[in-house]
Amino acid sequence: MFDKIKRLGSETAIYGASTILSRFLNFLLVPFYTNVLVPGEFGIVSYIYSMIAFVNVIYSYGMESAYFKYASTMELGTEKQNFSTPFLSLFMTSVLFSFAIVAAASPIVGALKIPPEYKSIVLYAAGILALDAIAIIPFASLRMEHRAKLFATVKFLNILTNVVMNVLLLAVFHKGVTGIFISGFVASALTVVLLLPTILRHLIVDMKNDLLGALVRFGLPSIPAGLAAMAVQVIDRPILRSLTDDATVGIYQANYRLGIFMMLIVQMYDYAWRPFYFSMAKEENAKEVFARVLTYIVLLMSVVFLVLTFFIGDIVKISIFGRHLIHQNYWGGLNIVPIVLLGYLFLGMYTNISAGLYIEKKTNYLPIITLIAAAVNIAANYTLIPSMGMLGAAWATFWAYLAMAIAGYFFAQRVYPVRYEWGRMAKLLIALGVSVGVSMIFPFDELSQGMEVALKVGLLGVFALMLFAMRFFRGGETVYMKRMFLRLRGLADTTIVNEQTPSSP
Q1: pLDDT (0 to 100) of residue 502
Q2: Residue ranges making up the domain that contains 166
Q3: pLDDT recorded at residue 447
Q4: Which of 282, 305, 313, 425 is most buried, by the most CB atoms less than 10 A from its CB?
Q5: pLDDT in tens, 320-346
């Protein structure tokens, strides 16, 4: 079992390497924005990009999934027709939709309550939406052809271009909010240019009508689920803005993005988990392995949660060249970070638990789960934000991900029952609760920085000691950890000896 789970861990690292690099580059924009934009300006950026996320679902209208379905089976048309038909369809509709946005730019600015001086960002947003939709099928084609390196390279260059353009336009040319959307437009345009060889290699001017009809019928039903998925992820921003102001949204967004460390773990795990559970499904002890994997991933996320909860305030206040990770104007939202981390923890649990739905081909439950989570998120936002502000928005997202985990467990157990190790996870919860509860008693603000760090490290030790005291770890796991500890200690001892030994002349 350990070998199989170890393989899952190594695959997670492999699949996640390019994602980590790209996400990290993108994350670097957050501290940059907080040091060059006031919270109100950053709030407008966050709001517009949350709206772009929703409209993007309409622009793509499920065509990517439809392409995968028909290009893999070749039920209708030739290989080039299966590329050209969805590509040309998306090209024409995206151009049409974006022209409509450009023509109605002034009414849209009024409806979204954006200051008139930012009208140009609506035009750039229309261009970004069109270009990103045009790139959908070429990217999907690269995945179908297993050209992962090219796919990752183009994605990486997109983000790198975006980061460089942002630095130039905001720090050098002082373009402010408009510069962010110009950067996004240029990055999307470059992406389409880089994909031109792939497009030209597959494209023929031949839209097969029966294939187009099949693609649309397959793709359109995914729009409600896609909108619900976006609601779970970003609906809190527009609701928060409607109930508060742009500055609150800006502070909320900057601190919400600090949850990237947990999000990356969930995303990396998801990349490796899907092929892993399909390959394991037919083995006799598959369900036992799946249950153990959930325990381990929850343990990992619990450790990350504690470390970030205890130290995120210290991390953001580290000064590099006179700048902090996020500007002092945004520190008022640091209290949402633990809640965001907890939400991602339950998303990680859902990622594991939902495996049974895929194994048994009961994916019809997935839109129901997403719609439940979206409804919980919307209701919780409108209920909690008036009294709690941005803290209410963070709790709303937490409740949405918790609802996904519970609904996913309910439906998955009906079709693929697994005996998860809930007793062990209860011990994890107790250790977490005690560590966090004790941390709330200490007046850290009155302590020296050294004493504060020492106490927080001690609380991490309390968490570990409680797990051992409650016998969370099984015999085989304890032996494995001892071997790893001895191996690391031996490596450290060897390093010390080598450092103390004079080098040869």
Answers
A1: 43
A2: 62-219
A3: 64
A4: 305
A5: 767 788 889 999 999 999 999 999 999
Rounded to whole angstroms, the Cα distance separating 210 from 36 reads: 52
CB 226 within 8 A of CB 62: yes
Cα dihedral sign, 234-191-18-271: positive
SS3 (DSSP) at 255: helix
Q: How many angstroms separate the CA atoms of 369 and 405, rounded?
A: 9
Neighbouring-strand partners of residue 473: none
Residue 191 lies in a domain: yes
Contact, 323 vs 472, CB < 8 A? no
> How large is the C-alpha radius of gyration of the chain?
25
Dump pLDDT digits (tens) for 365-388: 888 999 999 999 999 999 999 999
Is residue 78 a part of any domain in this protein? yes
What residues contact residue 488 under an 8 Å CB cut-off, 6+ apart? none
DSSP string, 364-408: THHHHHHHHHHHHHHHHHHHHHHHHTHHHHHHHHHHHHHHHHHHH
- Taking CB atoms within 8 Å and a gap of at least 24, the contacts of 111-117 are 112/47, 112/48, 112/51, 114/44, 114/48, 115/44
3-state class of 167 per DSSP? helix
Other beta carbons within 10 Å of 310: 21
Q: Which helix (H) or strand (E) holds 68?
A: helix 63-73
Helices (H), 281-389: 286-316, 337-353, 355-359, 365-388
Whole-angstrom distance, CA of residue 134 vs CA of residue 188: 10
Domain count of the chain? 1
Q: Which two tokens stand for residue 19?
A: 């994602």
502 domain-assigned? no
Burial class (CB in 10 A: 0-12, 13-18, 19+), 193: exposed
List Cβ neighbours of 395 (8 Å cut-off, separation of 6 or more): 339, 380, 384, 388
pLDDT in tens, 251-294: 999 999 988 888 888 877 876 777 678 777 788 888 998 999 89
141 found inside a domain: yes
